[in-house]
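Quiz preparation item.
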């Protein structure tokens, strides 16, 4: 250490302090050094991130911020370099704060001389080196220098936290060298160890260059758990198939021969992949599932990779192809909206329209939402898709208003994932404004399950929408966990009775009692009740007897394209409404039916 050149960065907003420090260091004849000076907080933060210096000397006062703040932020960004804090006067409280923040030493400017500053610099560097030695022993594998299990688990916890914050995916892989025991038995453990080191070098060559460090987030990393078991963390996976590409790259590079002690050695690897969040939302599940997928890869003949989910293994190509085409559906104008009318149960007039998305696939034709909405939720495609639905439904609402249909709002379903998005209220407001319609022209449908996922966030969002003048419908009511207290707190305009109760209302006395209780509860809370899935006249009559307000279902109309709805609205405006005709037909043929 005596003969090495020590690179020092002084962070101080006073040029006089820089001159003083430079002159003091010049008197330290045994301290070979280079001194660089930076005067601003932000410049210093950027320079620290570059990790070009051996030690940092920083002033306690840096304009509006402090050296303590800089030290804390640098440490949070991953810096492990030694810091020496300078202050104008001795202060025990500041001294304690500096040590807690991670400073290696604390000096008072007026008391600094060359021997003291040299000793402080050497002490800070030596202390940091000792800390680094302890850190390496605790968190790195001694043979391969890869992160060990402890460090990998720490990074995995961070990756989960980051992915939840950004609503993103990441992948982990379990990698096992096939038949490694045979290599140890044949060539000895010394050769086996050298092979593990060579494998590590090959693994590093497969790392995704563009993603190795991204926005000071979690790095892609390999780790050795022990023996011939390795793990891989791919911190940000845009598409599920990206993990497969990395896995195949690893398999390909490891299949090339290794030359050790003049002998060519051939190996293969089996890899299991699990994806956050669909294959697990915590460390244990992700590791367990990746490990299970790895053993499945061995069962499939080794030298291959497998995703955790068997269903994905069986139809991986089809699903990945569907995902790729779904991502392009919005920009390729393949999405369409159908609308299902809701009718007043007494007059048969249309009271609203529910917007329902369909995918007009260029080869497969109309694909119902049950086939692609779960995939959209899983991959995050649901966000641009929901934006498209909001904008399209808003524009169509304005068209129908201009045609004279002013009191028929359109309701739009918002997914539970989208409800966690901080820009949802802004997005809805912009869609309405761009289309030139009022908030009371649109209604938002949300499920009970979405409410229960994050009650306070949803309550805040719904309250903001209600303040705008929008009305909310609680969909699929009766299938979730809503309590009376939730119904009283949330600004809900209407309840929708789930179709599972409606379908059995005339056949199952218990289902009928549940439907009657829901209607009674809603009316007491001054909410409208909409029964969905109404398909028979008998169901209609029961709902009339119970006091239901509105109905929706195939008895009156299935979801229809925009042009068909336009004709239906025009017919009703001219007094030829389909709802009134159906009601008259059913009520005219009414038969006595016992009501439980």
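Solution:
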């Amino acid at each position: 250490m005596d003969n090495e050149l020590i690179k020092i960065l002084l962070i101080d907003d006073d040029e006089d302090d820089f001159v003083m420090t430079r002159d003091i260091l010049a008197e330290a004849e045994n301290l070979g050094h280079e001194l660089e000076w930076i005067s601003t907080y932000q410049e210093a933060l950027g320079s620290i991130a570059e990790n070009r210096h051996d030690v940092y000397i920083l002033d306690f006062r840096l304009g509006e911020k402090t050296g303590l703040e800089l030290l804390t932020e640098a440490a949070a960004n991953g810096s492990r370099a030694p810091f020496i804090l300078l202050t104008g006067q001795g202060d025990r409280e500041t001294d304690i704060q500096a040590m807690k923040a991670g400073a290696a030493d604390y000096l008072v400017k007026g008391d600094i001389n060359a021997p003291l500053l040299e000793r402080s610099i050497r002490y800070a560097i030596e202390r940091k080196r000792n800390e680094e030695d302890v850190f390496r022993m605790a968190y790195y594998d001694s043979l391969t220098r890869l992160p060990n299990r402890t460090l990998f688990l720490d990074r995995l916890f961070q990756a989960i936290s980051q992915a939840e914050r950004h609503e993103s995916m990441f992948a982990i892989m379990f990698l096992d060298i096939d038949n490694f025991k045979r290599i140890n038995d044949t060539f000895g453990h010394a050769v086996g160890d050298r092979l593990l080191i060579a494998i590590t070098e090959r693994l590093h060559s497969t790392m995704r260059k563009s993603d190795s460090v991204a926005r000071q987030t979690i790095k892609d990393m390999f780790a050795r758990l022990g023996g011939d078991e390795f793990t891989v963390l791919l911190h940000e996976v845009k598409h599920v198939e990206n993990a497969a590409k990395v896995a195949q790259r690893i398999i390909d590079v490891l299949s090339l021969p290794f030359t050790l002690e003049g002998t060519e050695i051939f190996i293969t690897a089996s890899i299991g992949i699990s994806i956050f969040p669909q294959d697990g939302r915590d460390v244990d599940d992700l590791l367990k599932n990746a490990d299970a997928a790895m053993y499945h890869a061995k069962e499939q003949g080794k030298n291959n990779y497998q995703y955790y989910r068997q269903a994905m293994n069986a139809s991986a190509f089809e699903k990945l192809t569907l995902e790729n085409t779904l991502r392009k559906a919005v920009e390729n104008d393949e999405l369409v909206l159908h609308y299902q009318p809701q009718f007043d149960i007494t007059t048969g007039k249309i009271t609203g329209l529910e917007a329902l998305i369909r995918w007009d696939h260029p080869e497969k034709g109309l694909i119902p939402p049950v086939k692609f909405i779960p995939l959209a939720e899983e991959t995050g495609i649901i966000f641009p898709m929901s934006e498209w639905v909001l904008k399209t439904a808003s524009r169509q609402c304005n068209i129908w208003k201009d045609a004279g249909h002013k009191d028929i709002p359109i309701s739009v379903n918002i997914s539970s994932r989208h409800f966690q998005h901080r820009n949802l209220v802004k997005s809805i407001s912009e869609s309405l404004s761009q289309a030139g319609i009022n908030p009371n022209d649109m209604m938002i449908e949300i499920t009970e399950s979405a409410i229960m996922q994050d009650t306070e966030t949803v309550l805040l969002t719904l309250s903001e929408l209600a303040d705008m003048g929008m009305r909310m419908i609680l969909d699929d009511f009766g299938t979730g966990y809503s309590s009376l207290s939730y119904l009283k707190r949330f600004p809900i305009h209407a309840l929708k009775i789930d179709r599972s109760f409606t379908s059995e209302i005339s056949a199952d006395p218990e289902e009928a009692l549940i439907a009657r209780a829901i209607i009674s509860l809603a009316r007491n809370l001054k909410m409208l009740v909409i029964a969905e899935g109404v398909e028979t006249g008998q169901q209609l009559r029961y709902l009339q007897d119970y006091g239901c307000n509105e109905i929706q279902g195939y008895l009156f109309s299935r979801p229809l394209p925009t042009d068909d709805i336009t004709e239906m609205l025009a017919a009703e405006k001219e007094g030829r409404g389909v709802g009134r005709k159906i009601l008259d037909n059913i009520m005219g043929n009414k038969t006595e039916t016992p009501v439980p």
